[in-house]
Amino acid sequence: MEKNFLKSNDFSRAELEEIIESALRFKNGEIPDKPLAGKSVGLVFFNPSLRTRASMQVGIYELGGNAVILEPGGTSWTLEHRDGVVMDGNKTEHLAEFVRVLERYVAAIGVRTFAHMENWEEDRTDPILAAFARYSTKPVINLESAMHHPCQSMADMMTIREKLGEKKKKVLLTWAWHPKPLPMAVPNSFALAAAQFGHDLRIAHPKGYGLDYKLLAEIKNQAEGNGGSLEIVNDVNEAFDEAEVVYAKSWGSKNFYGNAAGDIEFRTPLRNDWIVDEAKMQKSNNAIFMHCLPVRRNVIVTDGVIDSHRSVVIDEAENRLHVQKAIMTKLLR
Ligand code: CP
């Protein structure tokens, strides 16, 4: 079995389905035992969080374990991840020591490390997450890295199943305007998981905002191999037709990677069209509205949509707790 939980396609569809079944049992109170009794889990946050941090800490407690939360550069030393570097700058400790020390204390390590948004070729290799996985002999759980957010996408798949049943759905992942370029981890992982679960996936984005080509090829393979499909559209007015799930997210353009000002200028005319509003939702097939949160109201989505009865964003956030308990139980039992 795979030791780590870094991205969903390290696991088969059957294994992912098993995680969701287990998460549903946790949610229904059917798994009362404490698989983490006497164990600690390290949670390393390079970046801010509400949902991930709170749901992991609560989940570890409910499984009988203890969470050790570290914030490099805040409550722990600043960290270097590059090999062979002369550490005469502002980094105090190397991941080589940090991870190998931490793993002597804990049963698993969760890590949040966003894309730096400076060098695309570097970010797409997920360098910091990869270093944690390389140095740790204990399971590493990705709590959002430069390229993937698999705990989020598993909660998303669980939410779709809860709300709409097990059969494949017409799922729209739509780009939305945001005042600054954001990382691609959430759209990458949502699209990948939707493909692995065999949904008919449509990705809508303006020209210039395509996802990673290699990942798109994997998403297409997964969709076709699991009875689904992949369609990419650049016209927001056609995107919502027939959709049963609308998942909104903003992300930055690879064309302007490391040039936030250029991206911000390029996207300026997209603002009015690329927002999820009531008129677009009415074109859908009574779709549920999803977003990973945090979300900027009346920028990504209107109040009318996020406050409507078709919005499932709070349930989606709750499901992070249940799915992460299922993942930790699978890795650590
Ligand atoms: N969706 C999500 O990961 O939320 P946080 O950034 O608050 O953890």
Walk me through the topology.
Elements: H1 13-27, E1 40-45, H2 51-62, E2 66-70, E3 79-80, E4 93-94, H3 95-105, E5 108-112, H4 120-123, H5 127-135, E6 140-142, H6 150-164, E7 170-175, H7 185-196, E8 200-204, H8 213-225, E9 229-233, H9 236-239, E10 245-249, H10 260-267, H11 278-283, E11 288-290, H12 303-306, H13 313-332
Parallel strand pairs: 1-2, 1-5, 3-4, 5-6, 7-8, 7-10, 8-9, 10-11
Helix pairs in contact: 1-6, 1-13, 2-13, 6-7, 6-13, 7-8
Bound molecules: phosphoric acid mono(formamide)ester.
Give a quick rundown of the structure.
This protein is α/β, with parallel strands linked by helices and 333 residues long.
Characterization of the model:
It contains 13 helices and eleven strands. It has 333 residues and is an alpha/beta fold. It folds into two domains: 8-148 and 320-332, Rossmann fold (3-Layer(aba) Sandwich), CATH 3.40.50.1370; 153-316, 3-Layer(aba) Sandwich (Rossmann fold). It has a five-stranded parallel beta sheet with strand order 9-8-7-10-11. Strand 8 (200-204), helix 8 and strand 9 (229-233) form a beta-alpha-beta unit. The model has no long low-confidence stretch (mean pLDDT 97). Bound molecules: phosphoric acid mono(formamide)ester.
